[in-house]
Design brief:
about 110 residues, about 15% strand, 4 helices, 3 strands, binds zinc ion
Amino acid sequence: MLKIAKERIDILFKLADKEFSEHPERSHRYVEIARNIATRYNIRMPRIWRRRFCKNCYLFLKPGYNSQVRLSKSCVVIRCFECGSTMRVPYIKEKKGKRRERIESHIIKKRTDE
Ligand SMILES: [Zn+2]
């Protein structure tokens, strides 16, 4: 059951990402549904999606569209353009950092490509 819930969250965020350019209001709705599922089954948001919505207004965030992702020394700084709040996601303090490091270096690579 938990597995299904996680899969549904995954699907919802993927849909949100896909629909955002044309139907941002749907994306925000998908985040809401995903959050409801996470709460109901008492599961944590998958790490890859945790930074894709605002912790303040809970709207879906798409970097370069309604959010900005910057890297500081020890964390990823995400700025929500919808409500103007800033989130900091630390990325070096975790033990299981292997996968995460890979994701971060991917972001750094993407940024330098721009
Ligand atoms: Zn916000």
